[in-house]
Design goal:
single chain; mainly alpha; two-stranded antiparallel sheet; 2 helices; 2 strands
Amino acid sequence: MAIGGVGVSTEAAPPSDLDTIYLGGEYFLDRMKAMGNQTAAAKQALADLALGQEASAANAAAKSVLADAQKAKDDAVKALADANANAKSIIDAAKVQALDIVKTAQDTAARANAEAVSVKTNADEYAAKSRTDANANMSEANRMLADAERQLNATKKAEQDHLAAKAIQDAAAKAASDAKASFEKKVASIQAIIAG
């Protein structure tokens, strides 16, 4: 029944749990059943909570593993990028070094060729000068040989002239000695006649 527009229930309020236990009756069985249901619901809620906590822990672990995997992936990507950069740097350095080696080899070969040409030129010039000097020396040697032969011939002729002059001198001396002996003999004969 309603009074002054405010709804007021005329039904008696259910007894408390203590009254229900004390008084017994229909409320006791209903309340025990309700409490059993509440206990089962509480256990289910606790089980659900435990499952939720396990799921949350599993989710957190999964997130941690995922984060670790992402970090490992990021590290791998960075390591790959660094490796590629290092490889490119090494390749570029190797290319530069190879170019330097080739250039050095080419410069060395060019210098060697130039030195070879210079040596050949100097050798040709030296050989030509040596031939010229040899020809000049040979000409001088031939001239000196001819002079020596002329001097030898002159010496031989002078020796022959000396021998001829000596022969004439010896003949003249012999003739003089013979003439002297003949004269002395004649003088002795005249002296003998005078003395006789």
